[in-house]
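Problem statement: downstream parser choked on a complex file, so we are re-checking the raw output for the adenosine-5'-diphosphate run. The parser issue turned out to be on our end (a line-ending mismatch), but while we're here, posting the original submission so the record is complete.
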Amino acid sequence: MEIVLSGIRPTGHLHLGNYFGAMKSFLQLQEEYACFFFIADWHSLTTHPRPGNIVGSVREIIAEYLACGLDPEKVAIYVQSDVKEVLELYLYLNMNAYLGELERTTTFKEKARQQPDNVNAGLLTYPTLMAADILLHRARKVPVGKDQEQNMEMARRFARRFNTTYECELFPEPESFTFSRSAIKIPGLDGSGKMGKSEGNALYLVDDATTIRKKVMKAVTDNGPTEPNSTKPEVIQNLFTILEVVSAPEVYDHFNEQYNRCAIRYGDLKKQLAEDIVAFCTPIRERILEYASDATRIDKVAAQGADKARESASRTLREVRRTIGFRS
Ligand code: ADP
Ligand code: TRP
């Protein structure tokens, strides 16, 4: 069966964009592929050398994954730092990764600019560790956003280079898995394009009703249409896009019709939108809190995932060692 691997850095809560953009596809993927979902906690040391309560942040993500419906019986949910096999592959890949190509990576140059006092070797070799994450399971499909394209290109290059150097076909080239058309780009409510953590405009699955209402009521709007059936400006279209994914079709049609008749009241639209987002998030939020209150259960899921990941990793490493010429 084809293998899918997804990695996430433990940098915060999941928002509606993550849910409709990625999680919904994950829920489908888990039915069709052998999936590994891991949390890249070692990667976070490249930017945060003292990661604070990293165990807590990792547990939070696992709780959110489970609350969204990822099933640990079907997929492996694991923590990067629990599966030390990846370090050995990282080492082999680094021996065949060149300074020039690593220095040319856009993300490296960007980070070097952002943290000039900490241009560390981990940052430089971020793409090799990421390639090791992927090649460790000989994954073929990797769901990633556009910003990861260059890292994916490096992973393919390292896979090819290994195969050429050692005259083998051990590693398949991993491809970026673009989500099907069902993945919708969720806009922010501040009129600034997409919803995102770093954009500071996110509605989080774990937000409570009051927080959601407050955020939605602050959404940017305009003075309203003056011509019937006019095209919606971006800020208004944004509200409708979210309405389309969280509300009933009748609700969407109702406000759309009001808009087309120039009779829309944005206050009403926002109130309804807020309530529908609350209704969507509340059951997920409740499950998140329930899982989050049970660290033992979370840790058991991670341990079970790590077992599966180690099994697959040691199979790969046995072949890698033998191929290079070490005792396997
Ligand atoms: P963020 O930093 O905003 O959480 P990430 O870049 O970490 O976003 O996103 C992880 C995944 O979630 C992406 O690969 C993408 O598929 C999805 N995603 C993020 N934001 C959105 C959005 N606004 N709309 C749709 N999908 C999104
Ligand atoms: N670099 C990815 C990000 O910033 C996280 C990541 C690390 C990853 N290793 C990976 C993603 C392996 C996919 C596969 O989002």
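For whoever reads this later: The chain has a mean pLDDT of 96.
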